[in-house]
Amino acid sequence: MSETLKRTPLYEHHRRLGARLVPFAGWEMPVQYSGITAEHLAVRTAVGVFDISHMGKLALTGPGITGRLDRLVPSNLAKLSPGQAQYTLLLDEAGGILDDIILYREEEDRWVAIVNGATSDKDRTWLSNHLKEDVLVDSTAEQVLLALQGPNAQAVLADVTGADLAALGRYCHCRATVLGAPAFIARTGYTGEDGFEIMLAAAAGVQLWEALLAHGVLPCGLGARDTLRLEAAMHLYGQDMDESVTPLEAGLAWLIDWSKPEFVGHARLRAQKAEGVTRRLVGFEVEGRQPARPGYAIVADGRPVGTVTSGTVPPTVARPIGLGYVSAELSQPGTPIAIEMRGKLVNARVVKRPFYRRFP
């Protein structure tokens, strides 16, 4: 294992728990503990906890920051009240997706941004360059970020911390005291389940991790995080989207507020909306038991029409599913396609996303 890999404050805990550690986005991270299936099902039926401290944690403050930040994303940030959050995108001038992020509005001129670990440095530089003032503080190295996910998450967090979170709605957040330490708590996640993401100083984060495990919460790794998010048809940056893809192609047009007069990439997206896209990201199911893997060709009428970006046989739906880009005319649910697997064509069909849904 390379010594250049970064480690979260919980690294030694992962090692003592016998986690399988792998390189991920420049970090040495746990991919599984008891096993992907057990961890996945714990989140779907009860509760599990993930160390996601590798993700970028940025504070954005200063007079007028909301207006300047609003011009950098396609969503309408002005509509958010303090305590609300917005899943959105960073785009380049060509409308390509630089990253998907969550922005949390704390006060009139104070925001928190959580960004992907693999793009954290790039995002920080991009935001700093566009905001052009010293408004950004990066606390990635100093803070632990835990994701407590599953239908029992609220009850467990209340038992362990005493925090009353019943009134905290989805995609809302607050400041609270957790085990005697100040914490940022958001009702967000990447699993398709109810849950919370808790950010706090490193020592307090370690204490909370230990308390949750002592309460019987199962530690979960990146493997289960991936199968959970795929069942919920949540995008993985670097696989399901990148700079070569626009929100309209990736099925994320719902993040665009077309009433905004301008934002980075708006001219290209308006033109693409008028012209129509030539490809779309779709969900698909495969016949049989063999999973489609990223990079496999998608075929229709004997010709390549796209590429698989994500695929597996996740524990809840228990059948081969995936995401991939196909020609726009083949994107309707029910359309027959095939996946080329090791030289053979396996029948599949486009289906409506998500594959699993907890919430209406």
Describe this structure in words.
- The protein has 360 residues and is α+β, with helices and mostly antiparallel strands.
- The protein folds into 3 domains: 11-55 and 140-231, 2-Layer Sandwich (Gyrase A, domain 2), CATH 3.30.1360.120; 57-138, Alpha-Beta Plaits; 253-351, Elongation Factor Tu (Ef-tu), domain 3 (Beta Barrel).
- It is 21% helix and 33% strand.
- The protein contains 8 helices and 19 strands.
- The strands form 4 sheets. A 6-stranded mixed sheet has the order 10-11-12-9-3-13, sandwiched between helices.
- Strand 15 and strand 16 (303-312) form a beta hairpin.
- The chain is globular and about 65 Å long.
- The protein starts with 10 loop residues before the first helix and ends in a 9-residue tail after the last strand.
